[in-house]
Amino acid sequence: MHVDLTLAIAANLPPGHRARAGHDMMLNEKSTDPQHREALVSMTALYFIEEHALLRPELLEDAKKSLQALFLRTSGEETMLRKLIEILKTTKQIHQSFASISNVLSGITRGAQTVGSKVAAYKQALATMTLSAEENAAFAGPFLSFSQTLLRKIDAFDNNMRQYVEFKETEARYASIYRIAMEARERLKLRLAGVLGSQTRSEVETRIRQNVVSSFDYSESESNLQFAQRDAHNKEEEIMAQLEDIRVMCQMAKNPVMRNKTDDSSSPTISSYSVMPATKTPKPRADYDDVFALFSKALRQHPRLLQLKDIVLELFRLYQNSYGMFRLDCDRLSKAMETMFDNSEAYFETKEEDKDISAKREKLMMIEGLIPFLEHAAVLTTENATEDYGRFSRRLSNLISEKKAAWVHVDEHLLRAKVQAEAELSTRL
Known about the structure:
Layout: H1 5-11, H2 15-24, H3 34-51, H4 57-72, H5 80-127, H6 133-192, H7 203-215, H8 219-252, H9 291-301, H10 309-336, H11 338-342, H12 344-353, H13 357-381, H14 389-400, H15 411-425
């Protein structure tokens, strides 16, 4: 850790508190002050967090200030550990959002690639056979055309899902800007009404206020938001239409007795934040070959086509599975994108500071281990209040080293951080 946390705490204490803080932070062998216990756990976490850059600098600084408050015994201040856990949970949510979006998009791409490879394998199988015109017309040719059409729709769906995420990010950015503009507008109204006019603190603020009054215009932010919402909405409708086409085609590759008897066109909505009206205009449904029926009939009339049975049935199953996964992906993506709107500032700051998704996954795993450790450690600090510091320290080390714990993948890092924390806390101020 590059910053001496103990000295940082001391430097921010009022003069009258420094001597007492120095005395309090001497870790004697008789008993352990509850503050020392919480401080040891908190500083262990902060060393771990800073070493692995798990929090943005401003959040880390906020956590350090809470640690200062702990030693100041600030009345009404929530505990350091509770606050740190909440900060980590918010950060975890953001990293989970990145990971989930990436996993959904990667999963769709892998699904499209799998379908593409199987269609290519079917085409290769046809090339190894010398089919008659009748055999080709009965099934082989129509199914190849059917599969290639479906593959194009899946590829287009894959590309549009990636574009859609970009559109929703743009919408979230403008939604945040618009929200800020509206708040500024309300504050401006209050100032103009004289409610806040008396709160002007300097000539500089007065001049700024006059400039704002003369130039303020929130309509641009509103217009940008509306355009972004329209683009995202149009892309969503395009995706839903593609997904419906894929569903209809997959129905044709299914045993007729297993097909939906009712209209199953109620496609999922990708975004729960869409404010655009649902303008689903029914379009003529395309007619696709009933490839399942064609194959059943062709097998009876052309026994040689039995050579294609395994690969064709595999493609039939793959098509059903792909469509089902795509529907689930739409629901998963909707949940993953919530952070864009709920905590847009943190979302985009995190995205800008670290564009490597693999690094985000690694950080997420560390945070997922750190949170339950802190929750268990918080309980540990309340137990056996009369025990000496050495015993508490050993219990904390045993907790970190606990086998099969949720934090076992970071236990060595936590132990090193604990050593650093103890070295800091043992320093006489």
